Structures are given as structure tokens and as C-alpha cells.
Amino acid sequence: QVQLEESGGDLVQAGGSLRLSCAASGRTLSNYDMAWFRQAPGKEREFVAAKKWTPTITYYAESVKGRFTISRDNAKNTVYLQMNGLKPEDTAVYYCAADLRDPVTRGTLRPRDFGTWGQGTQVTVSS
Fold this sequence. Notes:
- It is globular, with a radius of gyration of 13 Å.
- The chain has one helix at 103-106; strands at residues 3-7, 11-13, 18-25, 33-39, 46-53, 56-60, 68-73, 78-83, 92-99, 116-117, 121-126.
- It contains one helix and eleven strands; from the N terminus they run βββββββββαββ.
- The longest helix has 4 residues, at 103-106.
- By secondary structure, it is mainly beta.
- 3% of the residues lie in helices and 50% in strands.
């Protein structure tokens, strides 16, 4: 079983950038579909980005398309979420998630489609 730990959350001004990291331990991420979700206070957890690397399949929520990028460093067994052009509405706790059951291939990108989660990292964007 893989364990995930997010980091990189911070307070940033609107228009700024952050890079979130999701470090894995216990197993290599090479066979996992990976995703980022976020949850703002009083709201449901929502999909942000997901990627399968072999073959390459990538999805982004419309609200972040063109601003956020999901990537992976195999040597560090870490997945990243580069966030540029941050907006106050991006404020949330961000979670990374992993699953071996090919949710990205199937296009099923709900929280329940991913079985392994990190503890989350807070991103706050001030206006």
C-alpha cells in the first residue's frame, strides 16, 4: 500500500504561484493513476487534475485549465501540482490521491474512484 504526503501549501496573493508536492512511500507511483482534489470550507471535495502516464492521459477541471499542471518526478517518487495565476476561489485544502484501478483511463474522476489519499495541504489565496 502506498502512503501519500502533501506539502507546499501556503498563503499567496492573487496572481501568484505555488507548487504542491505529493511524496509517496511504500510503493512506487509508476503504476498508479494520480489525481489532485480540493475542498473549500462548506463545500464538497472537487476534482482538480488527474494523470495517467502510460499511456499519457491528462484531465483538468475547467476552472484550472491553462493555469495548473500535474507532473511527476520518478526519481523522487513524487507528484506535483504547479499552480499559476492563483485566484481567491482556489483557496482550499488540496489532496493528492492514487489508485491502481485505472480511474483516469475510465474517465471516472470522483473522489470515491481513488482509494489512497494524503492528509491535505492548505492553500490560501488573498485578493
